[in-house]
Design brief:
The protein has 251 residues and is of the alpha/beta class. The chain has a single domain, classed as Rossmann fold. It is built from ten helices and seven strands. Strand 6 and strand 7 form a beta hairpin. The protein is globular. It starts with a helix and ends with a strand. This is Macrocin O-methyltransferase.
Length: 251
């Protein structure tokens, strides 16, 4: 566990990344329940903030902290990655946890198209076609340069942060990631989830964690369940909040 000063830093970092300090309003979308700042909504990652650098909420940031600190305490080898990063907040927090613990031998991988969501054509998953998240790319598309600038705002852009740009089907098969301690998926769609699992799950070390941000979305859940069944993954799934889950690989 970090000392008191480090814990205060990480708590402030979470509050800043979610912007519950200044309480920015959410973007008006099909998915936001209340079109004004609501603390419980922000805590649970149920809105798309106008200003905040993450939309995953405090409870999912707490989960990232728990998973990263656990692998550090238990000596589980490997780096940290998120696939689907939006403005970069979750990855910024991963880097902040490493900094708070003085860890210099692990990387944070930031994987995204940096172009928003792919077009869901007639050949795509039924739920993905219904969601049509690419219709919201005016909000969801965030450039790599903007994400890098966001890291720099927190003094956390350094050589322990690596970027993987492209659609996951193209970028992940040859990604230079050797071993992972924490794999966090936030790609929303069936193909994005499956591509991430197929290419990165084999790199997760025993004792490492897999976090699924979008388990509430039926197509994401379908991909996870199909992958687990096909690959005999039997570790129990644990809830983080109403939308996301995680599991830990057996040591």
């Amino acid at each position: 566990m970090p000392d008191r000063q480090s814990e205060l830093y990480l708590n402030l970092l979470k509050k800043t990344l979610t912007n519950i300090v200044y309480e920015d309003a959410p973007n008006r979308t099909r998915f936001v329940k209340k079109p004004y700042f609501d603390l419980e909504q922000r805590m649970n990652g149920e809105d798309w903030p106008v200003t905040a650098h993450t939309m995953i909420g405090m409870r999912r940031l707490d989960n990232i902290q728990e998973c990263v600190e656990t692998v550090l305490a238990d000596g589980v080898p490997g780096d940290l990655i998120e696939t689907g990063v939006w403005r970069g907040g979750a990855c910024i927090f991963m880097r902040g946890v490493l900094a708070a613990h003085g860890v210099t031998d692990r990387l944070v991988w930031v994987a995204d198209s940096f172009e928003g969501m792919p077009h869901t054509d007639d050949d795509g998953n039924v739920t993905d076609k219904w969601l049509k998240l690419d219709d919201d790319n005016d909000i969801l598309a965030v450039s790599q340069e903007t994400v890098q600038e966001n890291f720099a705002r927190y003094d956390l852009l350094d050589d322990q942060v690596r970027f993987i740009k492209g659609w996951f089907c193209d970028s992940l098969p040859n990604a230079p990631v050797e071993r992972l301690a924490v794999l966090r998926l936030d790609g929303d769609l069936y193909d994005s989830t499956m591509d991430s699992l197929v290419n990165l799950y084999p790199k997760v070390a025993p004792g490492g964690f897999v976090i699924i941000d979008d388990f509430v979305i039926p197509s994401c859940r379908q991909a996870v369940e199909e992958f687990r069944a096909k690959n005999d993954v039997t570790e129990p799934i644990r809830e983080i909040d109403n939308e996301s889950v995680y599991w830990r690989l057996d040591s």
